[in-house]
Amino acid sequence: MLNQIAANLTAIDIAIIATYMVGVLVIGSLFARYVHSAGDFFLAGKALPFWAVGMSIVVSDIGATDMMAGAGATYKYGLAQANFDWIGSMPAMIIAAFVFIPYYWRAGVFTIPEFLGRRYNTAVQTLQALIWLGFMFSMLAIMLWMSATFLSDVFGMNKITAVWITVAIVGVYTVSGGLAAVVMTDVMQMIVMFVGAGSLLALSLWETGGWSGMREAILAQGAETQNHFTLLLPHDTTTPYPWTGIVFSLGIIMSTAYFVGNQAVVQRALGARSEWDAKAGMIFAGFLKLFIPVLIFLPGLAARAMYPDLADADAAMPRMVVNLLPPGLAGLMVAAFFAALMSSVDSFLNSCTTIFTSDIYAKLYEAGSGSPLSTRHALILGRLLTVVLIVATGLVAPVIERFETIYTAIQTILSLFQGPTFAILLLGILWPRATRWGALVGLVLGVLMTGTLNLIGDQIFPSEDPFLFVSFWSFLFAMAVTIVVSLLTPREPPEKLRGLVFGQVLHDADAQELLKRGINES
Hints:
mainly alpha; Sodium/glucose cotransporter; 23 helices
């Protein structure tokens, strides 16, 4: 799909792309001077302002596949695709900002599994860490191979060479500058993405005669496109977007689980310089996400109006870039694609390293030595592990070419634990009675439940791809199991819950005494 763009690139386009790649490498590497401890490396020394947190979250979430596949899905199904950002982002990010992020930030944890370990026990922490490590390592390999395919199509280079170029660029600034370098390069990448996509949107609307002209051209194509401007499709639709799944599963379960339990997203907020910045960063990211359907999905609709007979819907965005963007802007759009790829690679790389160091190695080290892992030791290990991980995924990446449906398979794996993870996080923060055994059994049986539903889902749910329904019912099942087992097992001691449970201050005798003392003194 991308080689049609490459054939039309001019010298100025190549210069813009090369300048961008060198600029990312230089800017990211400059942050090495600020890294002196594990906290600096994994959480940017808790010094990130809200605007950097928000912009980094957006580009960590939106990758090159989203840019092409999102526009392609809009070309094929219409505006229902926008629900993944409008219904599926902003409400969940507000919940994350005001309910979950304050507890994560105050706890001073490096990872979501670490928070679950404090709230429940080491078994829950380790299981969550292993689940996320497997998922993120797979995604790293996929993103590296996609980057190789991208560079191969655009510049005509060997794919293996392209893999190692990406490894070198992302690896250097991630190893040297840690989370601060990742976030600040993400800021630069988001600006490039928005400017490139905005240029394409403006030109596509001009070519189609604006919103009214585009709408008229699409609706004139027949029955297949009559729902292209409908946000909520019928429950019995054959598309993957029935309104019931969108509202109840995506809007309530999947999106909230993603934004409160995804280490690659939450880690940016954990590195904020204050609790206010952590919450404001998440809300700012939600505001920016409102523009994604406009900037990325609307060009897909414009492509439907201009090129109604595309055999491959995912070719909509490349076709628009080739036919509409002049020299210079075409190069900027290619840079935007690469920015989206690199932001995904560096996010998964940094988060994967953090989880392994904090939730796996640190526990084993403490159990073996009897003393906690020092910050210096953690910093050296974090940098070494980053090198090992990026090289390992570079070696594994070529294997991805053998699997045509591997990306879909990874999304299915993600749905296996989103519902159960959200259930134990929600109960852990809102319900003091939730116990370690309740969470462990709820998580294990919940994951088994999602596996079963994925096997038989096409027989009991109306959608051809029932992942939305699977996530919803697995969440309810895991929550029910956690509640029942918690009620049958001993309560967690109050001192363990301090600072980890919503409203716990109302029942904390020490906290109430301090509040009374403060009121009396005033």
